[in-house]
C-alpha cells in the first residue's frame, strides 16, 4: 500500500504566457486556458493543474532558484512553437531545402548580427516569404542579392522578389496581348471572284 502523500490546494489565474505561478515557479497549461481560474494541487514532488475538476496538466515540482519555468511544448500556441523551434541549425537546414544562395544568406545573417536573436528574427522574415513566393523565386532573389551587395539584407531580398514578380507579370501580360492580336481579315478566293 502506497503511503499517503500530503497535498496543498490553491487557486490561480492562468497568465497571458499560459503559465501559472506556484510559489515563484511557473508551470504551463494548454494555452486555451489563458485568463481562466484554475485549481492547483501541490505535493512534494508534483504539481497538478485542474480546470472545472478536470486535470489539464501535470509537472514535476521545481525546486531551487526562484523563477524557473516548466513548459510543455504541446501547451504552446503554434506561433510560439515555431519561435522555440527556430535555431541557427534549423535555419541552415531550411536554407538547404531552398538552395545554396539561400544558405549563404542565412549564414551571412547568423555571422554578421551582433545578437543571435536579431539574426533569427531576420531569418524568420526570410522564411515568411515562402507564403507568397516559391523556393525557386527565393533562391533566385538570394542569388541576385549576393551578386549585387557584399552584405545582403532581408529588405533587399524582399525588394528583388517584388520586382521579379512585377517583371514576370508584365512579361506575361505582353506575351498574352501579342498572342491574342488579330492580323486583319483573311479573305478567301470567293471574295476576289475566285471559285
What is this structure's SSE topology?
Blueprint: E1 8-13, E2 19-22, E3 25-28, E4 37-42, E5 46-51, E6 54-60, E7 69-70, H1 78-84, H2 88-98, H3 100-112, H4 116-128, H5 135-148, H6 154-180
Parallel strand pairs: 3-7
Antiparallel strand pairs: 1-4, 2-3, 4-5, 5-6
Report on this model:
The chain is of the alpha+beta class and 195 residues long. It has 2 domains: 8-76, no CATH class; 86-168, no CATH class. 44% of the residues lie in helices and 18% in strands. The chain is built from 6 helices and 7 strands, in the order βββββββαααααα. The strands form 2 sheets. Strands 1-4-5-6 form a 4-stranded antiparallel sheet, with no helix packed on it. A 3-stranded mixed sheet has the order 2-3-7, with no helix packed on it. Strand 5 (46-51) and strand 6 form a beta hairpin. The radius of gyration is 30 Å and the shape is elongated. The N and C termini lie far apart (112 Å). The relative contact order is 0.08. The model has no long low-confidence stretch (mean pLDDT 87).
Q: What number of structural domains do the residues give?
A: 2
Structural class: alpha+beta
Helix/strand order, N-terminal first = EEEEEEEHHHHHH
Major sheet, described briefly?
4 strands, antiparallel
Estimate the helix proportion, in percent.
Answer: 40-55%
Summarize the entry for a quick read.
Helices cover 44% and strands 18% of the residues. The protein has two domains: 8-76, no CATH class; 86-168, no CATH class. It has helices spanning 78-84, 88-98, 100-112, 116-128, 135-148, 154-180, and strands spanning 8-13, 19-22, 25-28, 37-42, 46-51, 54-60, 69-70.
